Amino acid sequence: MKPPFTPLNDANGSPESWAAFAKAFRDPAQPLPESWASLFGPLRAGGKDAMTVIGQIGQSLDGRIATETGHSHYINGPAGILHLHRLRALVDAVVIGVGTAIADDPLLTVRRCEGPHPTRVVLDPKGRLAAHAKVFGCDGVRRLLVTADETRCAPPDGVEVVTLPAPDGRIAPRDVLAALAARGLRRILIEGGADTVSRFLAAGCLDRLHVMVAPIILGSGRASFILPPVARADEALRVPMRTFRLDDETLFDIDLSAQRVPLGIANMST
Ligand SMILES: NC(=O)c1ccc[n+]([C@@H]2O[C@H](COP(=O)([O-])OP(=O)(O)OC[C@H]3O[C@@H](n4cnc5c(N)ncnc54)[C@H](OP(=O)(O)O)[C@@H]3O)[C@@H](O)[C@H]2O)c1
Question: Is residue 70 in contact with ligand 1, taking CB distance under 6 Å?
Answer without folding.
Answer: yes
